[in-house]
Amino acid sequence: AYPALIIVPPSLKYNWAEKEIPRALPGRRVVLANKKTKPLQLQMADVIVTNYEQLLGFRKFEYEEELKDE
Asked: What is the mean pLDDT of residues 38-51?
């Protein structure tokens, strides 16, 4: 179910967004979320990648699945 939210440490955000997700889910729209990410970008994403600190800003956004890489 999409959108999926992936929460990772800051050092892994780019790896997940640019390598892991495209390899596992080709063709899915991936958004690397940060403070500058617009709500429309989040709404159009299949997969949202963010870190723990940024997550607080997305509490009002609804998502179906959550994956944490700890």
From this structure: 90
Taking a C-beta distance cutoff of 8 angstroms, is the pair 58, 5 a contact? yes
- The rounded distance, in Å, linking the Cα atoms of 38 and 12 is 21
Q: Which two tokens stand for residue 33?
A: 């979320």
pTM of the full structure: 0.76
Q: What is the pLDDT of residue 63?
A: 58
- What's the distance, CA 4 to chain centroid? 7
Q: Which of 34, 28, 24, 35 is nearest to 3 (CA)?
A: 28
CB neighbours of 52 closer than 8 A, spacing ≥ 6?
7, 9
Give φ, ψ of 9 to 5 degrees.
-65, 155
